Every structure is written in structure tokens, then in C-alpha cells.
Amino acid sequence: MITMTALPDFRLETYFSQWEFTARYHLTASDAQTMTLAELLTYADDADRSAFHHLSLGYTETFGDPALRDVIADTYDHADADDVICFAGAQEALYLAMKVLLGPGDHAVVLTPNYQSAETVPLALCEVTGVALDADRDWALDLDKVVAAIRANTRLISVNFPNNPTGKVIDAADFAALARLCDERGIHLFSDEVYRGLERDPARTLPQAADLSEHALSLNVTSKALGLPGLRIGWITCRDRELRARLERAKHYTTICNSAPSEILARIALKARNSILDRNRDLITANLPAFDAFFAEFADDFDWRAPDGGCVAYPRYRGADGVEAFCTRLVQEAGVLLLPASIYRSELTATPADRFRIGIGRRDAEECLTAFAQWMRTSR
């Protein structure tokens, strides 16, 4: 248990500031293959194409474009447009949700490993207990450990499936049980679902938390599964209208409203969601044999397992030099960028120090793996 710290440097973004746009081979991308504006507009119907070309660049509604919220609501079973509030990406949504839900005297439970701000923002606000996915059991979630972490003042349980960085998807029965235990104890379930739709087996796609509970919050974004991070459009769906109103008031202190062009483009993308997700799943499926072949060639150096979902995986590096030195040499000498385990270090739980994040959802994956393999053959 750690209590109330100031926000630290964001390790991932600090690392990317150095390497993301200078490394020749970006092999750790967390988003699926993106598209050009022209490609996205081919999905537009006549009304949305006209709306984009004749858009007035004024302020928009704080909750988000009503037509966009309608389209988002259509992706849920038990939500309507009034249950949706849009943000400038998932990061703003996560940050403001934590600020609204947590304060001194509260307690939160966060699964690890996870996206850094899912841990550090709650830590800046209240006491937090971490519950680690079990790396030795295929990143299994032990619900008994979640229950043991709950206190009388627990206000929030934060989860992320498909998980970043491991790609883990838990069983739907366990996810439903998690939602029930939150409801029984008056706890908000905060569910980061930004990779939903990229499951290797569609039958394993989890229900959305906002469909399971009136008090749960489902976080999503155009950035990851849809591969459109440049739009900077995310959202939270929650059927608790009082909470949704508090989120709007919090947003008044940050972006106030979203980018009007991005809202229309996000609307186009979400209407074409099934086609875009099919394209991205097909790309991941086509890429996986190259990853399997790479890791089979270097089986003495790595332990590899394809993710259940999403477009990132978290292999183990077995070299004596350690994963941090390995990733540094690889990007400096071969221009191949990976994210070492220190980026996902937790202050709450023990986390493996021998892992690295690798991206599997980009069109240039084989080119990147070829450069990686050549360096391994000549430098190890």
C-alpha cells in the first residue's frame, strides 16, 4: 500500500520523446495500423462527408457531438447517448474520472501491470492497493486477491482488458463476477476497454462494463483498436447520470470541448467500426506467423506467447545483460524500438523486470522483425 504521491514523470512518454520519431523501426506501437484522412473519408456517407467539408470551426458541446454520442451508444447494449461523454483521448477521460471519483480518505484497487496513469493518478489522490496479474499463470486474475484488497472506504476498482501490455483477456464469467462484487459493495468498476474488438478469438470478447452495471464506467477511444490516435477522441460511458454530470463539470477545467473536425471523423470511423476492426484483426492475424517464426529462431533468448487480444504482447527476455540494457542497445545499434519492463514498473506490486512490450498491429511488422533478427544474429 502506497499513499498520496505527486504525479511522477510519465515514463512511457518520456521514453517515446527520445525514440518514437527517431528510431527507424517502431516495433512497440500500441495502436493498430492507422489510415490517411482520405482513406477514412471513403467510409463516410453523404451526410457525414458534407458535414465534414462544411463544418463551422466553432466551439462544440462539452458532452460531445450529439450525433457522435448516438453512434457510440449504439455500440452498447444498455446505454443511450445521454450516458456518453466524450474527451480529448482516453488520457483526459481517465485523469478526470479519477479526480471525480477519488479523494483523501478514499481507497482504490488497481490491477497491474497497467498503463502508468491508471496507477499514478489514483496514487496522487488517495490510498491505493495493487493486485498483480500472475505472470506465472498466463497473467491470470485471482478474484480472491481483489476481494482481499477491498476496504470499507474502497471507491474504485480499475481494470484493463485486453490488457496493456500483456494482451490478457480474462474469462467473461470472471469479469461479470467482478462487476457484481463491485455493485454489492457500492464500488465503481472503471474498465479500460480501448483494445476491445481486437480479440484473436471473437468469442472471448468481454461485455462492456457499462452494460453490466449502472455504476460502472467503460473507457474507450478511437486510438487503439481503430488505429486512429490522431483524432484524439475518447469517451466514458456510464449509466449513472449524476456521475456523468460531475465528469462534465470536471471537463470544464481541461479541454472544455473536443475538436469539431475530429468528432465528425470519429463518427465516420465508428459507423464503419466493424469494417475497420475486421481489417485490423486480419492484419494482426497475418502478422502473427512472422512473430512466431522470429521467436522460434531465438527461443534461447526469449519466451513468447501471442496475446489473447489487442495489438501488443509482453515477451520475456532471458539474456544475462538484462532487458533494459538489451532494449537500449537494440534501438541505438539497429534502430529497433521496444519498451523495456521499467516502463511498466509498479509502485504497488512486484512486476516482472525481464519483459518488454512489442507491437503486432502494424503493416511494417515484418520489415521491423527482419532488422531485429539481423541484429540478433550479428550482435548477440
Automatic annotation (TrEMBL):
Keyword terms, alphabetized: Aminotransferase, Transferase
Coiled-coil intervals: none
Domain of life: Bacteria
Keyword Nucleus set for record: no
Family matches, as InterPro entries: Aminotransferase_I/II_large (IPR004839), PyrdxlP-dep_Trfase (IPR015424), PyrdxlP-dep_Trfase_major (IPR015421), PyrdxlP-dep_Trfase_small (IPR015422)
Aminotransferase class I/classII large domain location: 56-366
Annotated GO MF terms: pyridoxal phosphate binding; transaminase activity
Name of the protein: Aminotransferase
Species this chain originates from: Nonomuraea cavernae
